[in-house]
Structures are given as C-alpha cells and as structure tokens.
Write a structure and sequence with these properties.
There is one protein chain. By secondary structure, the chain is of the alpha/beta class. It has eleven helices and ten strands. A six-stranded mixed β-sheet has the order 6-7-8-3-9-10, sandwiched between helices. A four-stranded antiparallel β-sheet has the order 2-1-4-5, covered by helices on one side. A hairpin with a 2-residue loop joins strand 9 and strand 10. Helix 5 crosses helix 6. The longest helix is centred in the N-terminal third of the chain and has 19 residues. It is globular, with a radius of gyration of 19 Å. The termini are far apart.
Length: 282
C-alpha cells in the first residue's frame, strides 16, 4: 500500500492507521539492512575564530542501532550534530549516509535524504492541535504544502493517526500543543521527526527538562523505534543512566575530541571517561 493510497482510503481509518505503520516499518527495514554502515563520519573538524571545537572525530552508526554521544558541556556534541544535519559546514572531514557524501549539503537536502532531527527545545506549532502538527509534517514530506490553503482534515489522516498511536499520543490528538506536558511535547517532536520516515534520527537531548517518570517512556520509545523500523539513532543526553540503558554503543567527547567508544559497560568503566566526564578520579 503506498502512502498516497493510504491517505485516500479513509473508509477503514483504524485499520489503515495500523497498516500504515507496519508498511512504514517494513519499508525502512528493507532499505536499512541490519548491521550495515548507515552513517559513516571520518575526520570531522570544525573551528570558530581559531578555536577547535570538533577535532577530527570519526564514528559510525548502523541501521537499527542506538548510539549515545555524551560529554561535558562544551565538548562539541551540538556542533557535531549541526554538521551532521547541514546547519554547519565542516572545515574538514566526510559524512556519508549509506555511502553517499552529505557533508556540505543544506538541512533540507539532508532531511530529504533521510536524516531526521530533534532539538533540545521542542519545535512544534504551539497553537495547533497535536494531530494537526503531525499532518503538517506529513504534508511537507509528501510535498503537499499547498493543502494548507484548503481544509486538510482528511489529508493523510490515517498516516497521522498511525504516528500518534506509535508514539503514545492518540489520546491527545485534539489537544493544543501549548497545553501539553513537556514529556508529551518531546514525544510529539519524535513523531514529527519520524513523519519523514528517516533512515537516521538525530536526537539532541530528547529527555532534557523531564522528570524521572517522564524519561523512561520516551527512552523506551527511542529504543523500540530503532528495533522495529531499522532506523539508526544518534542521541546526545546528559542523563547518562538512560544512555547506558538504551544505547548499543556509547561515544564520549571531551574538548572536541572523541576520547572513548564502545559498549556501555566498557565505556562506563573506562578510567579516562570516569575522570573527564563522570567526575571520578582513576
């Protein structure tokens, strides 16, 4: 079933919504063979006014893998993210998505290539209902922005409802976004990011500002999205306990350099990481 046919077939909305998500997951899994080198970063470097902020770092993210990028404030994590999604142009180095170079491309071209992005502060239309926010993201994906000029209630409705169901927001579909709890806003931002069916999802502090009770559902959602859709996930997060719980691998940056990389248990035990970031002397 294509997404246009899904949008057109409104007669069995609940069934169509369920089928939409299953077809989306199957399509992404077929494109991203598990264990493949989805994102490949080599020698990535960025300086501002002579100050080296990112220093020749290299790493990879496989399809279906969750990779955590941690480090103290000022380590260069956000600058790295901004280069990956095209907001900043690297001074040197390569960024490859499924083997194709994307370094130097603008944010829209990288987004169209299959890279989704979530920000530290949730980016939503605060005055619109939750469902309309998701519809707006889908209209952009399907290049139907002109539909904003006419009633759009039935446009891509089944696909939007499937995304809300997948992210646990169905009960809040009619709520104005400005009234949502912060945890629900972050889940909505994830729904907007995956509306483009990304091959790679970049999440910049997705649990920032959340209480402990709100963090676990969002973390579990991120983990399950990678497993079920084959989407690679790279996330930064100051809540290291959450990162070590859901990540397949952890990368540690300090002063612009990558100082450790590996399975969570090995990184947690690394003396250099404990001294530089976790605040423990060797």
């Amino acid at each position: 079933m294509t997404f246009r046919n899904t949008a057109a077939n409104m007669t069995s909305r609940n069934t169509a919504a369920s089928m939409t998500f299953r077809n989306t997951a199957a399509s992404m899994t077929s494109r991203n063979t598990a264990g493949a080198a989805l994102l490949d970063v080599r020698g990535l470097t960025k300086a501002f006014d002579g100050n080296l902020v990112v220093d020749r770092i290299g790493f990879s993210v496989a399809a279906g893998e969750v990779v955590g990028l941690i480090g103290p404030n000022g380590a260069g994590k956000s600058t790295c993210f901004n280069m990956l999604n095209g907001q900043l142009r690297p001074d040197r180095g390569e960024i490859r998505l499924d083997g194709a170079r994307i370094d130097g491309l603008g944010p829209e071209r990288i987004w169209r290539a299959g890279v989704g992005r979530g920000f530290q502060v949730a980016q939503v239309f605060a005055s619109l209902p939750v469902l309309d926010n998701v519809r707006a993201a889908l209209l952009v994906r399907h290049r139907l922005v002109w539909r904003f000029l006419r009633p759009a209630r039935s446009v891509l409705a089944a696909e939007a409802e499937a995304l809300l169901e997948r992210t646990g927001l169905s009960a809040l579909a009619g709520r104005i976004c400005g009234t949502l709890a912060y945890g629900d806003l972050k889940r909505l931002e994830i729904a907007l990011a995956i509306a483009n069916r990304p091959r790679l999802l970049l999440l910049d502090e997705p649990m920032a500002g959340m209480t402990g009770a709100d963090r676990r559902p969002v973390a579990d959602l991120i983990r399950s999205l990678a497993q079920e859709t084959g989407c690679g996930v790279l996330l930064t997060e100051h809540d290291t306990d959450t990162v070590f719980r859901i990540a397949d691998r952890v990368l540690v940056m300090d002063k612009g350099a990558l100082i450790a990389a590996g399975p969570p248990a090995a990184v947690r035990a690394d003396p250099g990481v404990r001294a530089a970031y976790l605040g423990e002397a060797g």
